[in-house]
Amino acid sequence: MSGPTHEPDHVARAAREAAVRESRGRAQPEPSLGSRLGQIGILGWTIVLPTLAGLVIGRVLDRLFGTRVFFSAPLLMLGAAAGLWFAWKWMHRQDSSG
User: Fold this and answer.
1) 54 exposed, middle or buried (CB, 10 Å; 0-12, 13-18, 19+)?
2) What is the CA radius of gyration of the chain?
3) CA–CA separation, 45 vs 30, rounded Å?
4) What are phi and psi of 29, to 5 degrees?
5) What residues does each domain of the chain span?
6) What percentage of the chain has pLDDT greater than the value 70?
7) pTM for this one?
8) What is the pLDDT of residues 13-45, one digit of tens each?
């Protein structure tokens, strides 16, 4: 039967947290749909461009040395890994700035 003694503190704390969330929401409004789509586009190209660059460089090296996919496959994977890392860093930079 200790519930009623702790309820007012719990309710007051929840009300304070709700007020803080509401004021934070007013100070930092949600980005528009266009802004979100732009962010998705940036992330996509951040991943795709290094991947394609790795593939192109790998194909050039494969033709130069007469190999099949000796350079293309690993450089494709390295390009994809670099693109994902760049996207990860960009997302964390966006998260901390806004």
Assistant:
1) buried
2) 25
3) 23
4) -65, 155
5) 1-30, 32-98
6) 90
7) 0.67
8) 999 999 988 888 788 788 888 988 998 999 999
